[in-house]
Every structure is written in C-alpha cells, then in structure tokens.
Amino acid sequence: MGPASVIPAPGSAVDGPSPELITALRAGLDELMGIVGAGGGWIALKEELGFTVACVSGSARDDLTTVSPPWRADLAELVVDERRMVLVDDEAGSLLAVPLESSAGAVGVLALIRRPPRAYSLDDVYHVSVAGARIAAALEGDLPARGQGQADRGRRLLEAAETINSSLDSSSLETTILAEATHLVGAQKSALFVVRGDVLVAQEALGLSDRCRTLLVVPLAGSLFGRAVLSGETEAVEDVGVDGLGGPSPLCKGECRSLIVAPLRGHRTTYGALALFYDEPRSFDEDVKAVVRTFAIQAAIALDNRQLMQEKDRMAVRDGLTGAYNRSYLELAMERAAKDLRRNGGAASILFIDVDGMKEANDTYGHQTGDTLLVRLAALLQECCRETDVVARYGGDEFVVLMPDTDAEGVRQVALKVDAALSRHNATAAGSALLSASAGTHTAGAADIDDLLREADRRMYESKRTRTRR
To answer: For a surface tag, which of 159, 192, 334, 343 has the fewest beta carbons within 10 Å of its beta carbon?
Structure first.
C-alpha cells in the first residue's frame, strides 16, 4: 500500500453521484446507523488521487478532518484494494468498513463507527453488507451521462439485489438468484455452478432439460466456466456453433446458441460461477457484461450473508462440540410441547442419558477421546430418533431426547434402540474407550408435563446407581 491519501473533509465536490442519490445515501446511512447502533458513519468513493466523501453523518464528521489512526484513508485503501471487510477495535472506538463492489471492482467504502468501543455482531455485519450491496448497485446505475438505458439497468440491478437479499432465510435462494439473473438480461436459461474439488457442478438450473443438467459437470481447468472462476473475469460466447466453448462442452446439443458466465466470488470464498444461456446467437457488449458481473457480485454477497446467518443460528441453538441442540433450545422446545399438550392432549416423553465412566475415560485416554465419545453418542441418538424429536446436550456428559407425541411404549422402544446401537459401537471399539450410558425415561400428559424432565432425570440416576452396585 502506498502513502496514505487524506480523505477530503465533508463538503468537497463529488463529480459522480447525482444530488438525488447523495440525499438518498445520507438518509440510508442514518437509518443503518440506527439499526446497528453506530454513532457515526460515512460513504467515500475512490477517485484517481484518493477518496471523496459522498456523505457523512454523526460523530464521523470530526474523524474525516484528521489523518490519525484508525480512521485515516489508508484503511479505506485497504478495504478497496483487498475488497474485504475490515473491523477495528481500540480505545478510540469500533469501526466496521465494507467495500462497495461495482462491475468495475471496489469503488468505495461504507464505514460505521461506535463510541465507546463495542463489538459488532453477526447481525450487524449482515445489515451493513446488505446496505453496501444496495449502495453499489445504486451507484452503478446513477450517472446521468450514461443515458437512460443504463439508468434503467441500474434500477433493475438494485431491484434484483433487494430481491435476492430478501430471500436469505429461504431454502430457494439459488433459484431466486437464477430467476432474477435471467430476467435482468433477457436470458432463456441459467445455471449456478459450485466448486467441488477440481470440477464445477451445476447446483441449481433454470430452464435446462433434466438430461442436460445431469451433464453439467465441467473441469475447472480447460473450460470456459472454469476460466471465469479462475480469472475472475466475465466470459462470453456469442455463437456456440461458430466459436465453440473452448474445452469440453457440458451442454446438450440444441440447448443454447450463446452464453455468458460470471464468477461468484464472495468475501469468504469463491462459490463458483453464474451462467446465462440464450436460444439464439447474440452479441455481448461491455454494458451487458458489466450488468452480469455486478449482479454476480450481489449474488455472491447474498450467499456470504446467508452463511453468516446460518452460522449465527447454529451458534444460538447448537452445542459447539456435538452438534446436538443446546440446553436453551431444549427448554424452548419443552415449553412448546407443554403448550401443545394443554391445547391438544396426548403425551410427550423424555429419554435422559448420562455417559458412564467419563472421568475414567478422560484420565486414561485423554480429553480428546472423551470428546469423541460425546460426539459419537450424539450421532447415535440422532440415528435412533425421529426428525421431530429434539436431541440436546443437557450439560457435561448428559443428553436429553424430547419426544413429542410419544407414549411410554414408544420411548421404551427408542431406549432399546439406543442400547443396541451402543452395543454395536462397542463391538468395533477394540483397544479404545467403550461407550456406556445410563438412561431414564418418563412419559407425561398435560397434567404433569412440568415434572417430565425432573422425573426422567431421577430415573436415570436410579438406573446409574443400580448399575454401579452390580
């Protein structure tokens, strides 16, 4: 990185965005600050000799008149040059900065500042990343000098970005990405490729025949699709019949005559490529390539953000070691089960399990072996239970299985299945720690549901004492 370029103070001329867009950006910045609890923020656009502030709000006004760390322009250059999010925490405050990605690359920075310092959560990162994607899409289509056609494309890009970012909690995000992409540039078919080792596989396809989709597995090296992923550039073929595809063709005869491919590169990983197919030959000018490239950036950001949300959800309800649900989630599930019993009647059951001899296993084989036993027990419980059952690590070496709509005979059968699974495991565990557990079961209706867990726990310890006396 070269010498720091000082960000001009607010009020400097901005040649790029229109006054209307700047007004909208300032309003959006104020709203975003309120959502994530920031005291200040700014949006700066990269120019030939440095950065120009497009808008600034709150306490950030004072920051931009100085060059003292950590808010100086070299941090903005880092965000833009490396095209990645930057988090800074020190006594001056907490800063979160994300690049504004357009079809030409990272063109600016969105930054938020908290004083006194306070760490940003995954929710905060999600909101700021989505805002950055929308700002970049708006900038892409704003410049009036580009003409009404490009302004319309910019508007459609912004709408498409908003649509896919509103689908992050949906299992159909990939399908939404393909639908928006085909509509955006008038394609007839599309596919989303993901990297699997040294090949690309079509994870989702739209408009392509089932037979063709099964053939959409192409090498990273030597194919048009792989070239887009590896180079980071948009690739296009204007007439497949004349130009070919440059390497092994994954397309069935007659499926397309022209296509364009853009890489899906997120902040966290390279997902693969977005491919759009046309039934007739067509030319792809730089404007069309820019639209596809920019949309692919927004799609990759959406995939990144979905991963963040999923990780946050897992951390909130899952045990970090075993992957089973945690105690907090179990308590919520039991509240729901109690309400359902009081409303609809029936019965619910608990299987309470405690691993035997965990201290001895840790002392003899080491704590890593003890952890492995806990992970294996959690997996065995999942295998023996229904999807509607809740398998949770209650604490230490204790596990609880909540079984809605299950009577005493039902939980007894599950306990037998678990015991058989433990025996099969131990039969193949020669020379290593054996997995032994004490279990207690209890079934309750609406009248005594509050005692369900307590009674199962008592019966488990009664079972453990009996096993110990033998």
So the answer is: 343
